[in-house]
Amino acid sequence: MEHFDVAIIGLGPAGSALARQLSGTMRVLALDKKRQCGSDGFTKPCGGLLAPDAQRSFIRAGITLPVSVIANPQIFSVKTVDVAASLTRNYQRSYINVNRHAFDLWMKSLIPDDVQVHHDSLCQKIWREGDKWHLTFRADGQQQQATARYLVGADGANSLVRRHLYPDHQIRKYVAIQQWFAERHPVPFYSCIFDNDVTDCYSWSISKDGYFIFGGAYPMKDGQARFAALKEKMERFHFRFGEPLKSEKCTVLFPSRWADFVCGKENAFLIGEAAGFISASSLEGISYALDSAEILSEVFRQQAEDANRAYHKATRSLRIKLYGKILKSRALTSASSRKWIMRSGIAHVPLTYEEQPAIADGLVNL
Ligand SMILES: Cc1cc2nc3c(=O)[nH]c(=O)nc-3n(C[C@H](O)[C@H](O)[C@H](O)COP(=O)(O)OP(=O)(O)OC[C@H]3O[C@@H](n4cnc5c(N)ncnc54)[C@H](O)[C@@H]3O)c2cc1C
Q: What residues does the FAD-binding domain cover (predicted)?
């Protein structure tokens, strides 16, 4: 059985960034259930918007984004809709619109060859024996085993590592549902939709490469019915759907208290969404995935005596920032404070109707 310094489970943005950063300094095994080629196999349902914090992480790493990953068009504002109050506002945003699957494959392609990567490989079981972590995984059509000093759970919302380390920990979860349609709006746009009758989280739409993607995060119980109800309501706001070309869903974590951020223990570590590192106010998580990977790689590089303690301490400011997002989400999902914020017009960028009739066609109640 091969032994490694570090075994990383999951190569989304968090795991891929960590594997890249540890290359050359430690013996690393990295497992990912996604395939390296093609669009079949696992793909992450995601809006694929890279926030400025994620862009900053690439600046620090000296990495530039290839055009093959970037989606069309780039949009500079988010149309925010309060359904009950019939209010629409435009807020400027500096996201980069990317093709999420292409982005994930590109991030994996940056991992140097000295890291032993298994694509299309599901980690089935983990356990601790003595001072080693043991893993069972499927790779190259057969079951394999390995051991590692450090185990890293970069395996997203349904993290096996998180469930193993904290079997009793409950974090709020929603079902994220997205449908893809042919784009039929006169001008592509992003939107963020609040409707407390449908969800106490929020819904969104994104225009990408000729598709109109409509989605939202809904309570687990009757998510599909709520999603269908909102689609019907949005026709009143001139959203155009047609036949869905693709439907996707997944679990999304919604941290709602300080204790929801968990960093790991016993030489096992959680990074990215597996740690609960996702913004409760926007469900933006790629930047926190990249930041937590960077922090953990630095902890390993410094060979801290108690690496768990060092990682916990080093993520403190990131966790405080995420706690701030929890507070922000409470203000945004409360009907009265949201209405007050939107009515105030702060940061709203009004459209010039006369000059842009096509844009105005897609809007109401400005
Ligand atoms: C619908 C939706 C829209 C979103 N939109 C945005 C957005 O626009 N911008 C943004 O910044 N964030 C967005 N997010 C959040 C973002 O997708 C996540 O926070 C981010 O992907 C977390 O990265 P990660 O690397 O921690 O986990 P993930 O991206 O979930 O990656 C985990 C990886 O682990 C692998 N894996 C899981 N289990 C195993 C296993 N047992 N064995 C082997 N491999 C395994 C999977 O292959 C997967 O690739 C969105 C989330 C959802 C649900």
A: 4-167
